[in-house]
Amino acid sequence: MDNNISCEMKVETGDAGYVLEDVPHLSDYIPDLPTYPNPLRSNPAYSVVKQYFVDADDTVPQKVVVHKDGPRGIHFRRAGPRQRVYFTPDEVHAAIVTCGGLCPGLNTVIREIVCALYHMYGVTKVLGIDGGYRGFYSKNTITLTPKVVNDIHKRGGTIIGTSRGGHDKPKIVDSIQDRGINQVYIIGGDGTQKGAAVIYQEVRRRGLKAVVAGIPKTIDNDIPVIDKSFGFDTAVEEAQRAINAAHVEAESAENGIGVVKLMGRYSGFIAMYATLASRDVDLCLIPESPFYLEGEGGLLEYVEKRLKDNGHMVIVVAEGAGQELLAAESLNSPTAQQDASGNKLLQDVGLWISDKIKRHFARQTSMPITLKYIDPTYMVRAVPSNASDNVYCTLLAQSCVHGVMAGYTGFTSGLVNGRQTYIPFNRITEKQNNVVITDRMWARLLSSTNQPSFLRPKEIIEVRKQEELQTDEENSAKTNDI
Ligand SMILES: Nc1ncnc2c1ncn2[C@@H]1O[C@H](COP(=O)(O)OP(=O)(O)OP(=O)(O)O)[C@@H](O)[C@H]1O
Ligand SMILES: O=P(O)(O)OC[C@H]1O[C@](O)(CO)[C@@H](O)[C@@H]1O
Ligand SMILES: [Mg+2]
Q1: How high is the ipTM of this complex?
Q2: Residues 251, 244: contact at Cβ < 8 Å?
Q3: Distance (Å) from CA 163 to ligand 1 centroid
Q4: pLDDT tens readout for residues 114-125
Q5: Catalytic residue (choose from 220, 233, 280, 389)
Q6: pTM of structure
């Protein structure tokens, strides 16, 4: 047994600049593992499907926009059922855990992992870990069967609970080992996937025949590589209701202003997409795009102009926007500003900006305004997933189960260019997906709202320089790049 852990990626190269960033496999560190024919071969629903099994050499390119003479670039292993599996149904003892904030679709993913294990692979031992990572060592488990999970996709939240903090590697891996768990499905955001990578390394160091697989969950869409995260469409759709309400309120008052705060700690995707979808928004503020209030070209000047031209306006602000401006005015001590996972706790930018606008217009007696502030942040993420997210969650969960049964480990299941893939943890955890404000998507937003970019020419040059450095390494995030 090889106890020398290499965190380096398994990279294979081929002709014309082809690179496969492969995922680890149980057989990398446990020799002579027996394999078995995939039970799907005799499943009446699947056995008739031509080419149901994925070819062992199938890979998916990270970039689909290529030049004639350019290299073929980075590829990921294609997800899907394999001809042979590394577990018998009786041998499997699976566990599912959800960590981090809520997101529409969590219950659907749980449901579909359980159902895929039961119905496709004949597995009957599936546990839910209660309340995130700490549940491995501080709580009882929840037995999950198709009957228990039957209706859960119609509910928001996660039936097995979630939490932040509490990632204690030795205790978690002891619990996996002591309970004889050999498949761990970890659903969560960037922090969770980092935690999953650490668990995988420890499981491998101990030489356990236990697969550790991640499913990316983030309402903020801040996970790199993947096309978009599950629940994102639902969140954007739900945000429309708040924006519509803000628009109705604003339109019905003299100089009416509707302010809507949406989630987005470091990435403003929900705000950007909700704005683009609505067409009623006049100003969208996101963490990636700095702004200033006072003076020529400032936010207050724009609000004033918009009210004079239109008589009302709608502002969408992502919770992480303008935090540096709030921090400059804040008296809070830095230690009070982190959650249990070490994430920065944000101040309420919606309230702050509403207050700044009200004060500005109070000084201008000639222009009385009516401002309504709507904060639907938790409502947006607590709803059940919509129809398209349900299908997405189902494919994601099934793809993950296929990979796990085939013995792959240390991977996150994710959609890349419309195909399900297995992505090594390193790729998922190395950086964050952000809105690129020099890309076309943000330009579309600016031209839809007609808002100023708030960037001075010198700042534009600086932003471009930084982003060129990033985009040289890989194409910018898919959600920017459409
Ligand atoms: N670097 C890390 N190493 C190990 N565990 C981590 C790390 N970062 C976060 N975690 C653990 O992962 C879990 C979830 O992390 P976090 O609260 O940051 O949410 P997340 O997964 O990023 O989801 P989201 O931000 O979308 O709500 C927590 O239990 C936390 O302790
Ligand atoms: O209040 P909680 O549960 O910590 O979650 C808030 C955070 O979770 C997220 O939804 C995901 O990270 C952020 O947008 C938000 O800042
Ligand atoms: Mg996170």
Answers
A1: 0.99
A2: no
A3: 9
A4: 999 999 999 999
A5: 220
A6: 0.94
